[in-house]
Design brief:
- The complex is a heterodimer.
- Chain A folds into 3 domains: 218 residues, SGNH hydrolase (Rossmann fold); 144 residues, HAD superfamily/HAD-like (Rossmann fold); 171 residues, Gcn5-related N-acetyltransferase (GNAT) (Aminopeptidase).
- Chain A is built from 23 helices and 18 strands.
- A 7-stranded mixed sheet of chain A has the order 11-12-13-14-15-17-16, with helices on both faces. In chain A, strands 2-1-3-4-5 form a 5-stranded parallel sheet, sandwiched between helices.
- The longest helix of chain A is centred in the N-terminal third of the chain and has 19 residues.
- Chain A is globular, with a radius of gyration of 26 Å.
- Chain B has a single domain, classed as ACP-like (Non-ribosomal Peptide Synthetase Peptidyl Carrier Protein, Chain A, Orthogonal Bundle), CATH 1.10.1200.
- Chain B contains 4 helices and no strands.
- In chain B, helix 1 crosses helix 2.
- The chains are: A alpha/beta, B mainly alpha.
């Protein structure tokens, strides 16, 4: 799956300067030579649909660049700051700190925290900090784990403190988990001593594409691009054998044959599902046969309840995945398709190139270790709402069926008994609001991303009004699905900085209901005009005419609405009291 | 493998890594003769050559070559 370093480099030379890829500014600060990492990051980003503009400081300048307010780093004004301190330099620092080895990790973490706080006090840059692949310098052997002052002990402690003291506590602090990469691939793969001695580079050419994939993965997911859905084949992917031929008793799962491989695979999938990845099935089978193991086999870990869309038929898989995409209403590029059959994989790759199709190994025993190497499901956030997602998509499928029974849409909407809870942002809604700004790509007028910290700033701001909307109907609760951020432009004008909505609730009159509330807010605060703006991205074409449809007038590239001339729109949603 | 065969194999590696199909190596070629051959791509070349020949250069060897001929001698000595 990973490209070679030289291929990444070619990506850059072949990449057109005036491409339409989104441009992102990244500062790369390291204590060793980072020129190759720079190249690998740029090449990887192009594959993921971004163009990185990288400011690379001379190495060994981390503190100077960050503590000096007039440095080139601040002048550059990065969206992301990658700090890459190496285990080698760490070891050197340790060797020199004779008197304070017991406090080594603590001193270091406090220094890193100061770096972070200095950055945050001057910019909004997200900080990506590379943790430390362990060097075991073998001073005590295993016993170093019983010697608190040993380097191995302090280094492990430092990696732990990076998580416990910084990653968990600081919204804009993210870890690039180089230590995990070393765990997976081994130190000798990660580090070439002969290259290091000649160049001061600590990452081998072999590992650079992987490290870059990890780092760019963090950036992509914070930019709203990540995998949301896993589509599973069944026979020989989810269980061993062919249900149609072998029958319920003979498929391999649990203790039968190589069933252990499939059981562990299913546990992994189920855990992904619980953390919010939508599961779908796409299988060449009769539907009743395909469902039988889920209903009757005692060793199945994944149950029908875990699956949002179940497609089993004899049509081609590319068409079936289109069907799944249509129901879920998410981008093809957010889907992963797992199938043991190379023919099906190639068919999907050829027809739907945006879908991620890992090249599963032939032996099912190797599925998991292979999948662990890909870091497919990087994410920028995690909230309680994630676990509910499957249910919401299942309900959506029910609604789609119900709609077919009504001859007109108004009757259908009326029958839904829709209720919305409208509130300003608060501490409870903060994580979900921030997450929606990061996840929503399609129904998102300006695609501004907010961290929780930035949402907090909005709550405190005197110049902003904020609205969040939930939507509940007789089928269930969709949770918080719409976010509005209104910004004071002048005493008369209110600017819609953010209008985004979950695509789950399209075509329910939610746009009209939301506009009624925006106008209400504007009136209550004495504004006369509301101004909206559409900033096109590769994904938000569906809202190109959003303001036009709602009755805004075109005005110098923006859209304007006179509050006093506004007639509230008819809606079928009531306000939750 | 004789010198000519190594030279031929190296030419392929140089063309691939430096992304230039016009490169024709001789034993006399130096970094000055090939535009894309700088200190950074030198490292790329070393890693690719190590992989292609299944060998490992010592850190001193990496610094020592004055031209492609000397590189071939290093490879031959493994």
């Amino acid at each position: 799956m990973y490209k070679k370093f030289s291929e990444l480099k070619k990506n850059i030379t072949r990449h057109s300067q005036n491409s339409t890829l989104k441009k992102i500014k990244v500062a790369l600060l390291g204590d060793t030579a980072t020129q190759f990492l720079n190249v690998a990051l740029k090449g990887t980003a192009i594959n993921e649909g971004f163009e990185l503009e990288i400011f690379e400081a001379d190495f060994g300048q981390i503190s100077r660049q960050i503590f000096d307010p007039s440095s080139e780093y601040y002048e550059f004004n990065a969206d992301f700051t990658i700090i890459f301190e190496s285990s080698h330099k760490l070891l050197n620092q340790y060797y020199k700190s004779y008197d304070s080895q017991l406090k080594f990790a603590e001193d270091k973490i406090n220094h890193i925290e100061k770096l972070y706080e200095a950055i945050q006090s001057r910019t909004k840059s997200r900080v990506i900090y590379c943790n430390f692949p362990i060097i075991d310098n073998q001073i005590f052997g295993n016993f170093s784990n019983k010697v608190e002052s040993s380097f191995v002990f302090q280094q492990n402690k430092l990696n732990h403190l990076l998580n416990a003291q910084l990653a968990i506590e600081k919204d804009n602090f993210f870890i690039a988990d180089l230590s995990s990469i070393q765990n997976k691939y081994g130190r000798d793969f990660m580090f070439s001593p002969n290259i290091y001695v000649n160049t001061e580079m600590v990452l081998s050419l072999n590992v650079l594409p992987i490290v870059s994939h990890y780092i760019v993965g963090i950036i992509s997911s914070l930019e709203g691009r990540f995998k949301k859905c896993l589509i599973l084949d069944l026979d020989n992917t989810t269980w061993g054998g062919i249900i149609g031929d072998d029958g319920l008793e003979k498929i391999q799962i649990g203790s039968l044959g190589i069933g252990k491989a499939f059981s562990e695979f299913q546990h992994w999938i189920k855990t992904l599902q619980k953390r919010g990845i939508i599961l779908a099935v796409c299988s060449k089978n009769d539907e009743d046969k395909a469902k039988e193991p889920f209903e009757k086999h005692p060793d199945m870990v994944i149950k029908l309840d875990d699956i949002s869309v179940f497609v089993a038929n004899w049509e081609n898989k590319a068409d079936n995945i289109r069907k799944i995409q249509n129901i879920l209403n998410i981008g093809f590029d957010s889907m992963v398709f797992l199938d043991d059959n190379p023919f099906e994989r190639n068919l999907v790759r050829e027809n739907l190139p945006e879908v991620c199709v890992p090249e599963l190994p032939e032996d099912p025993a190797e599925y998991l270790e292979y999948l662990y190497s890909l870091n497919l499901f990087e994410t920028a956030s995690f909230s309680q709402n994630d676990a509910e997602r499957t249910k919401q998509y299942q309900i959506e499928a029910e609604r789609a069926t119900a709609l077919q029974n009504f001859t007109n849409v108004e009757d259908f909407l009326q029958s839904m008994n829709m209720v919305s809870d409208v509130q300003s942002f608060n501490n409870f809604s903060k994580p979900r609001v921030s997450q929606l700004t990061q996840r929503s790509n399609q129904f998102n007028l300006r695609t501004v991303r907010y961290t929780e910290q930035e949402i907090d700033d909005l709550i405190q701001s005197g110049d902003h009004s904020t609205l969040s909307f939930t939507l509940e109907d007789k089928y269930g609760d969709n949770g918080l699905i719409c976010v509005i951020i209104l910004e004071k432009k002048d005493t008369e004008t209110l600017f819609i900085n953010t209008w985004l909505m979950s695509c789950r609730v399209l075509k329910r009159g939610m746009e009209d209901f939301t506009l009624n509330k925006i106008v209400e807010t504007a009136k209550n605060n004495g504004y006369q005009y509301i101004v909206g703006e559409y900033l096109p991205t590769a994904k938000n074409q569906m809202v190109e005419d959003h303001y036009k449809k709602l009755g805004f007038a075109s005005h110098e590239g923006q859209w304007i609405l006179n509050v006093n001339e506004y007639e509230p729109k008819e809606v079928y949603i009531t306000n939750k009291i | 493998m004789n010198k000519d065969e190594i030279l031929q194999k190296l030419t392929g590696i140089f063309r691939e890594e430096l992304d230039n199909n016009d490169i024709n190596l001789t034993t006399e070629s130096t970094a000055e003769d090939i535009e894309e051959w700088d200190s950074l791509s030198h490292i790329q070349l070393i890693v690719a050559v190590e992989k292609a020949f299944g060998i490992r250069f010592t850190s001193s060897e990496i610094q020592s070559w004055n031209n492609v001929g000397e590189m071939i001698e290093s490879i031959n000595s493994k």
